[in-house]
UniProtKB/TrEMBL annotation:
Identification of the protein by name: Arginase
GO molecular function: arginase activity; manganese ion binding
Catalytic activity field: L-arginine + H2O = urea + L-ornithine
Family as reported in the entry's similarity comment: Belongs to the arginase family.
InterPro entries in the record: Arginase, Ureohydrolase, Ureohydrolase_dom_sf, Ureohydrolase_Mn_BS
Manganese keyword on record: yes
Family matches, as SUPFAM superfamilies: Arginase/deacetylase (SSF52768)
Length: 331
């Protein structure tokens, strides 16, 4: 059943490549890196790149990660060495994609991978704006986490302002913070730990919880997001999109679903709006986990939603597209 399910996902995902080659205006060049790594989250499985890896203009393939059999917890923290090593490898891969001139697309895997993805992006292009679309803030530090799962901590590793709050960890010596808190916007929050709430308020991070999305509407949220970021300069945008930002009625095949999320239309609108800025430079699409789907329809709905999010990032609009040189046939 599982192998058949994966085959069908790949067959669906092939349509993305065809769509990316038929955008108007033409889609920017995309470089896909598959990162089937999920040790930042307990009991997760790195299956999603198998389902989505065909959606590249240039496919850099799936990274392979060392299996660290002796990676004992460090206090409460789980799989620290594996997460550190995997993100270093991913950082190098994303940097290479950007230096080749492509928009980087990272398919996870869990959200701990944003550490390496954003670090590699910054190493290639300099200062970034980050739009973090997620049900969760993922800004716990190693000392405030309740679970020890690093997929709930990546933002704290990346922020200059929290450098003194993150202890020295094995296999993380390569990492230096690369993002300022004022250059980050969160969208879709609805499950935030008390320590995370304190950190967000302490740093004055721009956030749009689901309450703000409900109150303002997603169009106003995106207008305010882009106005806020552009006021600090037109920096390349890194979109880090956790599929659990979407309501589980639409995208249930994920590790930590939370009810009350973005609708399909709201989720796609976010990607369309960011694409239209001309500044979207890298995309993470993470936490798609086919093994967490209870039915074939759960998996199909989650994967197809993820594909549509990616297509929105590369210029597909719901009003339709046509090639620039298209002409009506003559009788």
């Amino acid at each position: 059943m599982r192998s058949a399910r994966t085959l069908r996902q790949v067959q669906v995902a092939v349509t993305v490549q065809r769509s990316l080659h038929h955008q108007h205006p033409p889609a920017r060049s995309a470089g896909i890196v598959g990162a089937p790594f999920s040790k930042g989250q307990v009991r997760a499985r790195g299956q999603a790149p198998r389902a989505l890896v065909r959606c590249a203009v240039k496919d850099y393939g799936n990274l392979t990660f060392e299996d660290m059999s002796r990676d004992e917890p460090l206090g409460l923290l789980k799989s620290v060495r594996a997460v550190g090593a995997a993100n270093q490898k991913l950082s190098q891969a994303v940097r290479a994609v950007k230096e080749d001139g492509h928009t980087a697309v990272v398919l996870g895997g869990d959200h701990s991978l944003a550490i390496g993805s954003i670090h590699g992006h910054s190493a290639a292009v300099g200062e970034l704006s980050v739009v973090w679309v997620d049900a969760h803030a993922d800004i716990n530090t190693p000392l405030t986490t309740c679970t020890g799962n690093i997929h709930g901590q990546p933002v704290s590793y990346l922020l200059h302002e929290l450098r003194s709050k993150v202890p020295v960890l094995p296999n993380f010596s390569w990492l230096k913070p690369c993002v300022s808190a004022a250059d980050v916007v969160f969208i879709g929050l609805r499950d935030v730990d008390p320590a995370e709430h304190y950190i967000l308020k302490m740093l004055g991070v721009k956030t749009f919880s689901m309450s703000e999305v409900d109150q303002l509407g997603v169009a106003r949220v995106m207008e305010e997001t882009c106005d806020y970021l552009s006021a600090r300069g037109k920096k390349p945008i890194h979109l880090s999109y956790d599929i659990d930002a979407i309501d589980p009625s639409v995208a249930p095949a994920t590790g930590t679903p939370v009810v009350g999320g973005l609708t399909y239309r709201e989720g796609v609108y976010i990607t369309e709006h960011l694409c239209q800025t001309g500044l979207l430079s890298a995309v993470d699409l993470v936490e798609v986990n086919p093994l967490r789907g209870q039915t074939e329809e759960d998996v199909r709905s989650t994967v197809s939603t993820a594909i549509d999010l990616l297509l929105g990032c590369f210029g597909r609009v719901r009003e339709g597209n046509h090639l620039p040189d298209y002409r009506l046939p003559k009788p």
